[in-house]
Write a structure and sequence with these properties.
The complex is a heterodimer of chains A (about 525) and B (about 300). Helices cover about 40% and strands about 25% of the residues of chain A. Chain A has 13 helices and 16 strands. In chain A, the strands form four sheets. In chain A, strands 4, 5, 6, 9, 13, 14 and 16 form a seven-stranded antiparallel β-sheet that branches. Chain A has a four-stranded antiparallel β-sheet with strand order 10-11-12-15, with no helix packed on it. In chain A, helix 1 crosses helix 5, helix 4 packs parallel to helix 7 and helix 9 runs antiparallel to helix 10. The longest helix of chain A is centred in the first third of the chain and has 31 residues. Chain B is built from nine helices and 14 strands. In chain B, the strands form three sheets. A six-stranded mixed β-sheet of chain B has the order 6-7-8-3-9-10, with helices on both faces. In chain B, strands 2-1-4-5 form a four-stranded antiparallel β-sheet, covered by helices on one side. In chain B, strands 12-13-11-14 form a four-stranded antiparallel β-sheet. Chain B is elongated, with a radius of gyration of 22 Å. Classes of the chains: A alpha+beta (about 525), B alpha/beta (about 300).
């Protein structure tokens, strides 16, 4: 321990200026961050605020870089790679040296960031220590993100070698990312975790740790580099091995007929059938593929439930048995997204699941004049809605249990601006009665039903995820053009969605003319 | 433990390049051992393997009774290692450098440190990066002597230093010689000869010889044979005769296994009757050059 502290204090002296710079950046970030909690339009009304808004992003980015640079430099200061460093023939104990570097990262990155996060929580009106566990988890995540940087620094001899290695690693990750995205792997990603994902995460976290410890303990740089390279290849193979456009259907069991509640997907009439079909027939668009747009809608979701579509698969089958299969694709849509306002009130149908399909020209030419059967398979999560007790604003603010607090705003429309320090924003919304005027007339009070905002399940966080505070905005639309307003003191009712199960439905539509759905 | 350093068939290869080939040597405790050889002979590699900076590819080595591949951490409180190409924490001032190193060594002798720094005229307030090459070597040496190591290993410490600095380094080193074993690799043969007790000659990764300096000095002689008539270089000469050459009525060579009776007998058997024979002792530098040249000639 004594040796660890001794090396650590030497590093503090060595990098005094760099540490000071990172702390200044962190302080600037902390100064800029609260501005980003305001609504975007409010931020850009004042020039000073717009600079601070920009500053939060720039400082966040620079901080990420500055910490990486500090980590690289502190490791290189007593580098475990190479044969000329003076320390390797001095009585350094490798666990002490490694611990000193670890301590440096905690002292220079984690602790200042933690302090700032506590301050930000305080400034945002949250009890800081209530969220301590989450903040510690954020620090661990940040440390895990820097593991690869530390491993590279531990096997690189000097800055140039590190820069070269970093470029190679960057290109490698871009390839892995491209491979993952372009082949549409990890379908249904938000709720479904592919077994290989765990191995990938283990490789990304455990492998750099093994390399770092091994490198400090044994200084076998060539072997450590081979291990890193092998790990990269394993990642590449794992990404390539994940089946493309597939869904683990066992996690989304097919709903038996009659099982409720269920989501009925229907194929709507084509949006611009005549012109598109004509364009195709006249040969104006003769690419190798044809882009179709199938306007799908959802119906039959009973009150108090909603379905989140995670993935969709469309199969086209001609009468002669010729088939085209899209495979599973990621999708995201809520049914009903705005329960009070169906797109087709008579049928209680909500649109929005429009799926662009790129099919081969050959297949299209083969089936365009015949009737095609379209099979739509939808994988979704069913949620049950829970209504919380009404919350009456006090000085324009409501406190939402297990979430955060929200302030009301009246601009072009009624708006509820919420701040939360939760790790994940639950799928939720609010309802509130709107009136023709304030204070409401007796007629108003008797006649108007409550208005509900759209369901929102994600928060917005500015500045590279370093802040524990995120914001969510709920709008209460005047969708029927009645110029309705929210009146001060009218309570808000929170609604939360609780995930019940995942399911899959399949719907067949016969007699479809594909030419009617061409997007050209 | 009678040897400070002992190696058995120690080898080191970098991919296909064999830098060290089955080197076996023994350095007795208290010796001042000079490891010499031409550039690229493997001296630095040998020292780095001994210091566990490189892992050996074959064979084994013991340093102060410990397997060299296990040298780490606390063991280095007994070893002082100084190399010409060592990377120092150059941002530190000399004072800071010594302050930083001191806690690593329980046996650090502050009085000795002061004396060494005074003797070497090390300016405490100067950063290491602002020191001349000679001053840096002095700082490195002083920081490696102040804890009274049992083994002092110096890899080309005198390269590029002016004579004054060299003398200062040697003086400091010799003051420690009584209580330590010293292993030194160097090209500066004239200096080494003046204080080494043992010498090893490394060439192309192979240890050609390793012996006491006095034995080496006794073993090598420059021999001049004067004959009655102008000689020609004989077709066959003993293998121990290096650089044979005829000039006028004399024939010269260097005998690498000199023994008066044996060498005399070999001369008589090669030339028959000779008019005169002189044997001249050689300096280490002359021996080194003879070894190197004869190798080059035979290559």
């Amino acid at each position: 321990m004594k040796q660890t502290i001794h090396i650590f204090t030497k590093d503090l002296r060595r990098f005094t200026w760099e540490i000071a710079l990172s702390l200044i950046l962190l302080a600037l970030y902390g100064w800029c961050q609260p501005v980003t909690w305001n609504p975007i339009d409010a931020i850009f009304m004042a020039q000073a605020n717009s600079w601070r808004y920009l500053g939060a992003n720039v400082c966040g980015f620079l901080l990420i870089l500055a910490w990486a640079a500090l980590l690289i430099r502190v490791i290189s200061e007593d580098s475990p790679a190479g044969d000329r460093q003076f320390w390797i023939t001095r009585p350094y104990r490798w666990p002490s040296l490694l611990a000193a570097k670890f301590l440096f990262f905690i002292a220079v990155v984690n602790i200042p960031l933690l302090m700032l996060q506590l301050g930000l929580l305080q400034a945002a009106g949250f009890p800081p220590f209530h969220y301590l566990a989450r903040l510690v988890a954020m620090q661990l995540f940040l440390g895990a993100c820097y593991l690869c940087v530390a491993a590279l620094a531990a096997v690189a001899r000097g800055g140039r070698q590190f820069a070269r290695a970093a470029i190679v690693v960057l290109i490698f990750f871009l390839i892995v990312l491209w491979l993952g995205v372009s082949t549409n792997r990890a379908v249904g990603f938000d709720l479904h975790v592919h077994p290989l994902d765990w191995i990938e995460e283990a490789v990304l976290i455990v492998l750099p740790m093994v390399v770092i410890v091994r490198q400090y303990a044994r200084r076998k740089t060539a072997q450590s580099r081979w291990i890193l390279l092998a790990g990269g290849l394993v990642l590449l193979l794992l990404t390539a091995a994940q089946p493309a456009n597939t869904l683990n259907e066992a996690e989304y069991p097919l709903l038996a007929p009659g099982m409720e509640p269920r989501l009925e997907v229907s194929l709507e009439s084509p949006l611009r059938p005549a012109t598109a079909a004509l364009a195709i027939r006249n040969g104006k668009s003769r690419g190798k593929t044809v882009l179709l747009r199938l306007p799908l809608s959802g119906a039959d979701m009973p009150a108090g439930y909603l379905a989140q579509v995670n993935a969709i698969r469309i199969t086209l089958e001609a009468s002669d048995g010729t088939r085209w299969d899209s495979g599973w694709k990621n999708a995201y849509h809520l049914f009903p997204d705005d329960p009070d306002f169906p797109h087709d009130p008579a049928r209680k149908v909500w649109r929005g699941l429009d799926t662009p399909l790129e099919i081969s020209r050959n297949f299209f030419d083969h089936v365009q004049d015949t009737d095609v059967t379209v099979r739509v398979a939808t994988a979704a999560t069913l949620f049950r809605e829970h209504q919380g007790p009404a919350l009456t604003p006090v000085d324009g603010q409501i406190t939402v249990p297990d979430f955060g607090y929200c302030v009301t705003e009246q601009r072009s429309s009624e708006r509820l601006l919420c701040r939360t320090a939760q790790r994940e924003v639950p799928l939720m919304t609010f309802s509130r009665r709107l009136f023709k005027s304030c204070p409401p007339t007796t007629e108003d009070l008797a006649g108007l039903a409550s208005e509900r905002g759209a369901w929102i399940g994600t928060g917005y966080q500015n500045g590279f995820g370093l802040s524990p505070v995120s914001t969510v905005e709920f709008y209460f639309g005047d969708s029927e053009g009645k110029r309705l307003v929210g009146c001060p003191g009218t309570p808000f009712t929170p609604h939360r969605a609780e995930a019940i199960r995942q399911f899959r439905v399949e719907n067949d539509f016969t007699g479809v003319k594909l030419a009617d759905y061409v997007m050209q | 433990m009678s040897s400070a350093v002992k190696t058995e068939k120690l080898s080191k290869a970098f991919w296909t390049v064999k830098a060290l080939r089955e080197m076996s040597l023994e350095i007795p405790q208290g010796a001042i051992y000079a490891l010499v050889g031409p550039n690229g002979a493997g001296k630095t590699t040998a020292i780095k393997v001994l210091m566990n900076i490189f892992a050996p590819s074959g064979g084994r080595a013991e340093v102060l009774g410990v397997d060299s591949s296990k040298l780490a951490g606390g063991f280095f409180t007994q070893v002082g290692y100084v190399s010409e190409n060592q990377q120092m924490p150059e941002w530190m001032r000399v004072d800071q450098f010594f302050d930083y190193l001191r806690p690593f060594y329980p046996q650090w002798d502050r009085a000795l440190e002061s004396s060494l720094r005074e003797q070497m005229e090390l300016p405490g307030d100067r950063k290491l990066r602002h020191l001349s090459r000679g001053m840096k070597m002095k700082a490195a040496l002083a920081s490696s002597l102040a804890y009274r190591p049992k083994l002092i290993v110096l890899d080309e410490p005198f390269t590029g230093l002016d004579p004054l600095v060299r003398d200062q380094l040697i003086e400091s080193l010799l003051e420690r010689a009584a209580e330590a074993t010293i292993l030194i690799s160097s090209h500066d043969l004239a200096e080494i000869e003046s204080f080494s007790s043992h010498v090893g000659y490394l060439e192309q990764g192979r240890l050609k010889f390793s012996e006491e300096m006095s034995s080496l000095a006794n073993r090598f002689r420059e021999v001049v044979v004067t004959l009655a008539q102008t000689p020609s270089v004989p077709a066959r000469t003993p293998e121990t005769w290096l650089q044979p050459a005829a000039a006028g009525a004399t024939f010269q060579f260097i005998d690498s296994q000199f023994e008066p009776e044996r060498t005399g007998a070999a001369i008589r058997s090669t030339f028959g009757q000779v008019r005169d024979v002189t044997y001249t002792p050689m300096t280490l530098r002359s021996i080194f050059l003879a070894m190197a040249k004869s190798k080059r000639a035979s290559a």
